[in-house]
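Protocol check, entry for the methods section draft. Step 1: assemble the input record (protein sequence plus ligand SMILES). Step 2: submit for complex structure prediction. Step 3: store the structure tokens unaltered in the notebook. Ligand used here: pyridoxal-5'-phosphate. Step 1 record:
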Amino acid sequence: MTASEQAPLHHDGRAGERSRDLFAAARAVIPGGVNSPVRAFASVGGEPPFIKSARGPYIYTEDGAELVDYVGSWGPALLGHGREEVVEAVVRAARSGLSFGACTAAETVFAERLCEIVPSLRGGMVRLVSSGTEATMSALRLARGYTGRSKIIKAEGGYHGHADMLLVAAGSGAATLGIPGSAGVPAAAVVDTLTVPYNDLEAVGRSFAANPGEIAAIIIEPVAGNMGCVPPVAGYLEGLRELCTAHGAVLIFDEVMTGFRVALGGAQERFGVTPDMTCLGKIIGGGMPVGAYGGRREIMEKIAPLGPVYQAGTLSGNPLGVAAGLATLEILTRENPYPALEKTTQALVCALAERAAKHGVELSSNQVGAMFCGFFRGGQVRDYSDAKGSDTARFGLFHREMLARGVYLAPSQFEAAFVSVTHDGAAIERTLEAADGAFAAVAASKGA
Ligand SMILES: *Cc1c(COP(=O)(O)O)cnc(C)c1O
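Step 3, stored output:
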């Protein structure tokens, strides 16, 4: 049953009585009431609306609100929610068996498709896993096994999943909640994790110079998407490529968010820089839990059972996930929605900036392909320290005002917003009307 078959819809997305009851029940048995901390509304105030269904660019709350969705399940919903072709592929796969833990033909087809589409996988290999976290932790273990080195470099405000070694200066929910390093991570797990400011090539050069022959890999989001949205400055990715080549380190692009979003072949296609390894997730599962890591053949051949680096997964290459992923890739390849997505997103970001300016609200916007973000500050945002300079109280107010007007944004300043192919004129128009009111409210709240 879709929400449109029920009682009249409204556009006030704030948690109503039913969502509040559901949240109270959830909190009794699930820590914080959420199965991932980014879903909590801790940093924006209020309680999360519970979601009942979703279709196209809209999600429907348990309180009967229809909201324009810019979270898109945190990225996967590039095709919008409930695309029939994808749902049918999953249903068809389910009827043949939910999981076998054994080889299936579709896994190979999926891997072949990935190796055609993603530049760094061409002529290489890819291994399927069940989440982005698994992809990054496995890629790093492999890079360490391949190079025989221990140290890794990541960017401040970069988020690569929740593996111990990566919870250092981490973005996304860790940044939102002010715990960029986590309790429970032993010091020994992070001694080999070096951090550098994003977009600062010299800092990376200094890290290499200070640790000669010891750096196994750089892992980087080629467009940072977990401190808001922060594009690479000109020459940054090229410079990382050169440094890794010069020092024999593995360059890993974490394209869990950017893969199939900023271009079909990801940021590496868009910016023309090919890493040694790539991590994928989110969109490749089309809404199902799928991740992947892959790259150059001589590196990938070090994974068990071919090589000595161990990595495994009971549900890896799961038939439902593969079916959803294959159907998604098929549609993206066939329809090439990227030029239209770029246009829609650019126009939206421009129009939002105009509304902000009209009300005298300082907003610094970044956009790459179908991902964007508005920081509540002036000037440019090029790294995590710039991002942290935004007025999160203003963002919180803006978020609440948008939600009350029918627009569902990620409940944090340090997350990107995602546009889908189904965000049409009506959805955008509603977004802009809401933004006009929300910016007015921000402008009116003195002090904020
Ligand atoms: C979401 C994300 C991850 C983690 O993926 P999960 O599926 O949540 O484990 C890793 N890296 C990046 C860049 C992400 O955006």
